[in-house]
Amino acid sequence: MARILFIVFIVFLVWLLVRVLGGRRRDPGAAPAPAVDVPPRPAESMAQCAWCGAHVPTSHAITVTDGRAYCSVAHRDAAGGA
């Protein structure tokens, strides 16, 4: 009798393990999770680097006193626009 109860207990544990681990897998036919609505950022004007011609947002551009904009300090220094 104890052997039968032991076998039933083992079968129950295997069934429980399959249910727990099997529930973690995602069903490939299920619908994807809904996307989170993120408000769009406002558009920002762009400035063209006077050295290499790359376009960067004006908030990231390095601007010198005569109005020229650079994409980096290295390009500002290379152009002599300190």
Short description:
The chain is an alpha+beta fold. It is 34% helix and 12% strand. The chain starts with a helix and ends with a helix.
If you had to describe this structure to a student in words, what would you say it looks like?
This protein has two helices and four strands; from the N terminus they run H-E-E-E-E-H. By secondary structure, it is of the alpha+beta class. It has a domain at 46-79. It starts with a helix and ends with a helix.
* End-to-end CA span: 92 Å
The value of Rg in angstroms is 32 Å
Total of DSSP H or I helical runs spanning 4+ residues: 2
Helix-strand pattern: HEEEEH
Structural class: alpha+beta
Net shape:
rod-shaped
The beta-strand count equals 4
Q: How many strands, which pairing sense, and closed or not: the largest β-sheet?
A: 2 strands, antiparallel
Tell me the helix content: 25-40%
Which runs of at least 5 residues are low in confidence (pLDDT < 50)? none
Mean of residue pLDDT? 86
Adjacency order of strands in the biggest sheet: 1-2
Tell me the strand percentage band. 5-15%
Q: How do the helices and strands line up, and which of them pair or pack?
A:
Elements: H1 2-22, E1 46-48, E2 55-57, E3 62-63, E4 69-70, H2 73-79
Descriptive tags:
82 residues; alpha+beta; two-stranded antiparallel sheet; 2 helices; 4 strands
